[in-house]
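Request: When convenient, would you put together a sequence paired with its structure tokens?
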Amino acid sequence: MTQRRISRDSSVLAATATRGDTWASGPPQLGRGASRRQFLQLGLGGWAGLTLPSLYRLRHATAAQPPDRATRGSASEPTAVILVWLIGGASHLETYDPKPHAGSDYAGPFRPIDTSAPGVQICELLPGHARQAHRFTLLRSLTHTGFCHQQGAQQLLTGHPVRELRNKPDHPDLFSIAHKLRHDSRRALPNYVGLNPVPYTGAAYLGPAYEPFAVTGNPDDPKFEVPNIGLADPGAVARLNTRIDLRRGFDRLCREVDRGAAMEALDAYEAQAWNLLTSPRTKEAFDLNREALATRERYGRNAWGQQCLLARRLVEAGVELVTTTFSGPLCGRVGNWDDHAVNHNVFEGMQLRAPVFDRAVSALIEDLYDRGLDRRVLLIVTGEFGRTPKISHVASSGEGPASAPAGTLQPGRDHWPSACSLLFSGGGLTTGRFLGATDAKGEQVVERRVDVHDFLATVYRHLGINASQVAFQDFNGRPIPLPGSGQPIAELAP
């Protein structure tokens, strides 16, 4: 097998610090129409011909040696991570690192506000965050060199110094790696779920078995459903039972010839498929109708609010890795946070999406603590980079939500990986503070610089993974160690 190189798409990749990438055909579509292709199909007509039991066998065949307990968390209380991904890159100045005194070329119209954490101020657009600030820590000093969306996402989530523009990474992201190392064949629920998965990431040479279980669409839509879980039709269950009985009869014959472990394991693979398809626990975990109406309202009756509520339900049910992308109409005209002036008026865009974002994330933080999940579950909120502190004024490329008619000059901010702000909550970490600092204009890190390896080491520490001792074979059979030069952020230590 050779790695497929993705060619450049000039309409997507033409971004520079002064000229916006418009995602001319809209943002990466994270789940409309074709969502069923992203699910594991039951029966002989499976996804790319791969049935669900076959996928579990593929996972077994590509698995490394079973990890020790240090890479799997506590048997009684396994750790988990939720990533809220702001695709396109949110402005740090209009969220977690306001600079009200930077001058008119830099500062926007929004003011900072005090929070429940002494000395911590954030943008006035985030009052819900402000009330929960004692339960999170802001890192204002992460830097990398990925100036486009592909590079930024892949550098941050793989740790490799990606410079080329590829829609899928050459190396697996941290969630696929953790999924492989923490895989447990006995679980009913998938261990890695992407609620509108993060674009530009993937399992690379680990193989498709370690991609996320993709859940697409709007969870607030009354017609929303997760196909191929929790079969309720007695006829379908009976047919599946018949199929398994036939397979077992065939296996008994095969065992007379081959009594090896591989044949013995077949029942286990079928059991995993059976659990996913018929387990009431699986169906219940994905069923938002089991939540009180007041809870659903508190998160917000919209796609982002219900994605966050579903993420909480999943980790509470035992899922250990959840990513969710905030994209689509709630972002504005081009469906993402990429606030070049050609795309959006950056300030109107932030004002449009901030109430929905603020409500969803602050409700999730509140629930993680109030429901006793705060030590086990680490929440991270970020995008691939920040935005240029200096405001640009460029003609809009089209009228729509948060954008003036085509040709109208409007303010924007471009890609800025030199200063990124991230939110960490839960995970047993020290909270109620901020770490690192940028200069008076928000352009450069001047205190406690953190790189992508430190970020990854921090997340791996929470998951109980010692990255320095992990290596995987690439497509050519070469052992590729995980980038291990980073150190966990000491100030976040539990």
About this structure: The chain has 13 helices and 18 strands. The chain has one domain: 51-230+279-492.
